Amino acid sequence: MLRTNLPARPRIPLPPVLAAASLWRRAPAEPCLPSVLDAGKARLVTSGRIAIALALRELGVQAGDAVLVPAYHSPSMIPPVLHAGASPVFYRLRADTSVDLDDVAAKLTPQVKVLMVTHYFGFLQDLSALRAFCDAHGLLLLEDCAHAFFGAHGGRPVGAWGDAAAASSMKFYPVYEGGALVSARRTLDNVALRAAGAGFEAKAALATLESGFAYGRLPLLRALLAPPLWLKGALRRLRDGRRNAPAPAAAALAPASSDSSFDFDPAWLDKRSSWLSRLLLRRLPAASIVALRRARYLRLQAAVAGLPGVRPLFPSLPDGVCPWMFPLLVDDPERLFDEVRAAGVPVTRFARPLWPGVDDSVCAVSSMLSTRVLAFPCHQELHEDELEWMCATLRAILQA
Ligand SMILES: Cc1ncc(COP(=O)(O)O)c(C=O)c1O
Question: Is residue 270 part of a domain?
């Protein structure tokens, strides 16, 4: 059985991991796309879902209101809506992942206050049309930029068309935690954040370094930190041994959102992102992040071109896009998913599972995408040989 032979973790990193090269990388000559942080006022928080919750609060969403949410969604997008006391109303998408505005119009009620739209995999929605629709119907627009930290539409940065925007820096930067609430239309004066404490800062810094170490990055620093890290592990083993069970202590120090969980913990609503995450957001050259991601996306696209049973979800890579990942539409997703994972290739299935009750009857396109899209990393922190290996392995599996 393939599932029992899966490697503990992929051979190369799924999210960006910190390396010495991340810090010294030269920015390319071509002009950079703006970031969501250029869109307006910004508050750096610990995750995208916290930013969504703060955006809903800022937009005045209250108990009894309704928020239009795409049927193709991350399960982490819904708890912030419920936290506001509002109900999610799921709307349909078209096959190209654009918002089905006819369906949205059919779902408008006096309770609906906000239209939340997602820029899937970094590919921007038609923001001018969405803005016009919201203005015509008295709706507030929330741009979910979790997959689109960089990008531009109609000469404006991603995030600038909405009344508010929420971003997830963890998906674009080699950081353990991070999200952003942004608004071009509000002052965000009511969003006060405070430091989450020394334990959180230490956890965020150590986790950032350790995910780099796990993939052979920062070897010198790893050697230097080996004795204290060994001591930390030994102490944890001793403590777990005494308790006869692993302790969930780390969860108190840091948000679960950084550990592949969909949980929403309101305790993080008033917490600022860690010092290290904020530093890396300022220091890492955005232009090279954008250029490398675009180039790697195109390499993956070329690697699978013409192969049977697959096609890129998006036919081309428009100028204003900085991709989160490379999404591939697959005829036999279960088989390919098992095979690529068994080979150690990092892969993710966005929007799987969908929120309970969201099925074919709500939106056939969304359930199809949730089943058939496999996404592969195209981030800036992949080494050239890692990218080469991933492309070759994918090709070999698809040609077999
Ligand atoms: C489309 C989308 N929106 C929002 C989120 C929430 O972001 P975070 O994980 O930073 O809380 C995610 C997370 O995967 C997402 O994919």
Answer: no
